[in-house]
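Researcher: Here's my situation. A collaborator sent me these components and asked whether they could plausibly form a single complex. I don't have experimental data yet, so a predicted model of the whole assembly would be a useful starting point for our discussion.
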Amino acid sequence: MSTIIQHDENPKLMKGNEALAEASFRAGLKAYFGYPITPQSEILEYLTEQAPNHKDVIVLQAESEVASINMVYGAAGAGVRTMTTSSSPGISLMQEGISYIAAAELPCLIVNVQRGGPGLGTIQPSQGDYFQATKGGGHGDYHLIVLAPSSVQEMADFVFDGFRLAEEYRMPAMILSDGALGQMMEKVYLPKSGSLPKQEVEWATTGKPASRERNYITSLHMDPEKMELVNLHLQDKYRKLKQEVRCELINTNDADIILVAFGLTARICNKAMEAARAKGINVGVIRPITLYPFPYEIIASFADPMRMFLTVEMNAGQMVEDVRLAVNGKSSVYFKGRMGGMIPTPEEILLEIEALTEKQRTMSQSAGYL
Amino acid sequence: MSTTMNGTMEIVYEKPKTLTDNPTHYCPGCGHGVIHRVLMEVINEMGIAEQTVGVAPVGCSVFAYNYMNIDMQEAAHGRASAVATGVRRVLPDKFVFSYQGDGDLAAIGTGETIHTINRGENILMVFVNNGIYGMTGGQMAPTSLCGMITSTTPYGRDEHFIGHPLKITEMIAQLPGAYYVARHSVHTPAAVRKLKKAFKASFESQKEKKGTCFIEVVSNCPSGWKMNPLEANEWMEKNMFPYFPPGDIKLPATMK
Amino acid sequence: MISGTVIIATEICKGCELCIASCPQESLGLSTSINRKGYRYATLLRNNCTGCVNCALVCPDSAITVYREIKSTKRQSQSAQPTVATQTA
């Protein structure tokens, strides 16, 4: 279920990072805290440049990503729409704060414009933070809502989805982008302001009137029985979140080979699919849009012994584990990945497809002998 | 409870209503309880409880929100001033304070402490310095004195190996964002009265959006120091005060 | 001398003795019995309290409420002797 957004009539040509920044103003952002890191610094730059036109929005450059995420904690606890953005090494620094935010059930938006790692890595695009984003990332049993844009248009639109879902479920949401999507310029129809009203919340710490008990934001529960109840409540929320699964299916119904890819690699897979179809190979693409909740059931519905899955990622094979869980042995699942800032080309994916087609042909032949 | 007794007596001192009725988890004689009460007394007397948001740390005072009957947030270890910044920036007309111990403010949170004050965040930072990590069982703190025996300096703090006790209050007083910086204690009635004045002046200056007020309270840790409360207060006066002398460190002209 | 008295919340008191040391009248001492937490609690031993509030100021547990004699100008009825309150709360 996507957020109903009204868009400008006329498109703009913008960088992904800038489109996301502009969309955040239009989504009713009230407080932004961030720290420079390539390849997402344009977000902070755009917001600080435009801040004078948005006097009711706080845009503050913090001293570190650690401080940024904790400022987000404070602002979210005070009940306002708040966001931080960073890239992989900075997101690692934020993990402690994200765990606290998830535990204290505070809504906020975190944007990760991924770059290659591990370590300081490279400033080139990567999808190496899939595990960190979708499995929790920090300590304890928690999850984020994870949205994976694959265009500049979605960089803008998902700000609205992210805030809406975060506030509806009282949990942090993450836009898991990458350096290529952040830096590329594309046509974008910007979402219009005012389409995402902010609900007043009763739990915010804004000063305790005599009419109510004090509000306190905490993640500490010394009594293990209480702590388990808090955990059960969180898990219950994550189960409910499954209704928000989003996934794009392209040519999947007649596909002998289904490519599974998110974000930037999904675009490349679309190209590879077109090339394969031109050669008479029936290829489809499944693009998970929500990486958490992950579209297990949708992928499972395509699992078939005669069908092969090829997961393509810019990492050593992370989402492929979820694809394998989804098909649960009913199909063979293969993986093609590039790492460290390398982007796979449609041609090399096509080569993989052709190799799988050959394998499929041999398998069906040997099945014929039996 | 009535305010008079037999028509002849009137209450001259009672627990402020800005404290909850929860009994504290603090050890007998611990300064935290007094500092909590003085802070809440000031908020009560100034009539600003409905406009105040506090931020609790990680450490012994992690449960401050159980005792302070106002809206509170509990921050990650060392991050109280960053959280308070977030609150302050989106609630510019409210009163905001952070409450931290020495490990929280002057070790793991040093960066946040310095930058919060350097931005001149219009908050009150309460810094309770007892030279030890109380909650985790008496380990060396950034402010443990030279030679001080703790559970991680069992032979005494060797400053040549592990560094000197950090005078963070004197350090941050150098920052232009620091408006009012003072060091107090709560071991005597007179000291408690002085601290109360300092808290009051800090909240008054928040109305004027003057910048960061930073009040260090040199306090005790009877359990961590392995002394009874009276001995602990004596030890504090004799050993802590020479290194961390009470008094105003940065006093704005309007307060002189 | 102005007379006063204190009421000590004995179940809150942890027997730290800081109030006892701060009392200029030496009015306070520790009880012989213990409270439910197992502490000997502070108690008013002598009837010479002046209501100076020193004890309450240093009490970490906010366990002490201090009363003081109403000045004769404020008091409607006069000459009634203050009574020492029982130590309950």
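Model: Some features of this prediction you could bring to your collaborator: Chain B has a mean pLDDT of 96. Chain B has ten helices and eleven strands.
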